[in-house]
Design brief:
Blueprint lengths: L2 H16 L16 E5 L3 H13 L5 E5 L4 E3 L4 H6 L8 E3 L1 H5 L4 E3 L3 E5 L4 E4 L4 E3 L2 E4 L3 E3 L12 H4 L8 H12 L5 E6 L9 H16 L4 E6 L8 H10 L5 E4 L4 E5 L4 E4 L5 E2 L2 E4 L3 E3 L1 H5 L25 E3 L14 H19 L9 E9 L5 E11 L4 E4 L5 E2 L5 H19 L1
Parallel strand pairs: 1-2, 1-9, 2-5, 9-19, 11-12, 11-17, 12-13
Antiparallel strand pairs: 3-4, 6-7, 7-8, 10-18, 14-15, 15-16, 20-21, 21-22, 21-23
Length: about 425
């Protein structure tokens, strides 16, 4: 057994032992109280794990299963690509969930959900039982739509960097290695995808880097959507005024394939494009475990849920959060929204496990900041309330809004937002 595999297995075995579990065992010896298992430690899952513990007065056992050693924030990660932040700035330990809130943390992957037996099966071979299961697996990519990226080595060269981590650093290194006068091409999929304004923010970050370090270089945005999907006028103003001659935007460019060997993008109705650095964001769907478990009932892509509890419409006692769900009208797939999902679901799960009725009128809010430079920021905000007749979330008329202009004050607000939501999720 390789050292890394041994460490992961040992970590999992230790966590299972703390729960009174062994491989193949589906019961907790001597443990009291209801059991909630949370799969995925992002904004949705980590928030749900923390708040189930808090709102049950620490009477409900919570096990969080997450393969990564630390939480890495996708919001703010574009600034790492632009060079104004580091990975350390967006990385937070899970330690407080364990030490302050008594969450049992298992560093492993879930390979199977058995809703009849109410257990999840781990890659290391163990099983963890639950009374209620909360899945927050984020997104995975529909690579089958881009055959060229399935060739050996292609995904190591043509990066998406849409899950903050190793690829974030790798894309930054590609930009640093690119010659002045080169072209960075960013391919954006049709919506819905995780973080609607994220690609356009990334274009701004790369453009600012080029303006300072590689002024002859170019950012080429190739968008499958007809137009910019979020904060369009504000982004276009930044491209025209701040990054004139650096950024070029082309809508209606649906990507059909990628030739990694020649750094070529192929399109459904447009000519091929070659560039020095290709950054391809593939089409997305619910995370693998949700799809594999048969929960992706909307076009076999997204998970339909009851917005009062986030219980899956396909499986009892299983709740799905965050980017994996079939969103309500005008509801973004964002970190802030996943945090709101986590709290709403946590409250509902505590109610259901303690014989109470879940809240019938939940309200979610969302704020999304986008950096058009390393300091200046724009934002969009919204409030969503449950409509009992339509059984979905609808935006509250007159709520929210969009920035009037980009400025440094918004930048200070954005970093305060980030620190606050990281603390709300993990502290």
């Amino acid at each position: 057994m390789k050292r890394r595999q041994f460490i992961q297995t040992a970590s999992t075995a230790s966590a299972l032992g703390a729960l009174g579990l062994t491989s193949g065992c589906a019961s907790i010896g001597g443990a009291n109280g209801p059991k909630v298992v949370v799969v995925g430690g992002g904004y949705g899952g980590a928030t749900a794990a923390k708040y189930v513990r808090m709102w049950s007065d620490y009477g409900i056992q919570v096990t969080l299963i997450e393969p990564n050693a630390s939480f890495i924030s996708c919001p703010i990660s574009n600034l790492v690509i632009g060079g104004s932040k580091t990975m350390a700035d967006i990385t937070t330990s899970y330690d407080n969930l364990v030490k302050r809130h008594g969450v049992n943390l298992i560093k492993d992957y879930v390979t199977q959900v058995d809703p009849d037996k109410r257990v999840v099966k781990l890659a290391s071979g163990g099983e963890v039982p639950y009374d209620r299961l909360i899945l927050s697996p984020g997104v995975d990519f529909m690579m089958e739509n881009l055959p060229g990226l399935q060739k050996p080595g292609a995904q190591d060269k043509v990066l998406h960097a849409w899950k903050a981590g190793a690829q974030t650093v790798a894309l930054r290194k590609q930009l640093e290695a690119m010659p002045d006068g080169g072209v960075y091409a960013l391919a954006i999929p049709l919506a819905p995808y995780r973080c609607p304004p994220g690609p356009y923010e990334r274009a701004c970050q790369v453009a600012e880097y080029f303006s300072k370090a590689k002024p002859k270089s170019k950012v080429l945005i190739l968008d499958a959507n007809d137009d910019v999907t979020s904060k369009g006028p504000l982004f276009k103003k930044a491209w025209a005024e701040r990054y004139k001659g650096i950024v070029e935007y082309r809508g209606k460019h649906g990507l059909s394939d990628v030739d990694a060997a020649t750094n070529t993008l192929k399109f459904e109705f447009n000519s091929d494009v070659k560039a020095n650095v290709l950054n391809v964001i593939p089409p997305m769907r619910a995370g693998d475990i949700a799809v594999k478990s048969g929960l992706a009932t909307a076009n076999k892509r997204w998970c339909e849920v009851d917005f009062l509890t986030f219980e899956s419409k396909a499986a009892k006692n299983v709740h799905v959060l965050g980017d994996s769900i079939q969103i309500a009208p005008a509801m973004p797939k964002s970190g802030h929204m996943a945090n709101q999902h986590g709290k709403t679901c946590a409250a509902a799960v505590v109610a259901l496990l303690t014989g109470k009725e879940p809240n019938k009128l939940p309200i979610y809010n969302n704020t999304c900041y986008s950096f058009v430079s390393s300091e200046d920021v724009v934002h969009v905000a919204s409030v969503h309330a449950y409509d009992a007749d339509k059984k979905t979330m609808l935006t509250v008329p007159g709520s929210g809004g969009v920035s009037a202009a980009a400025n440094e004050l918004e930048g200070r607000y954005a970093m305060a937002w980030a620190r606050n939501i990281w603390a709300d999720t993990l502290a």
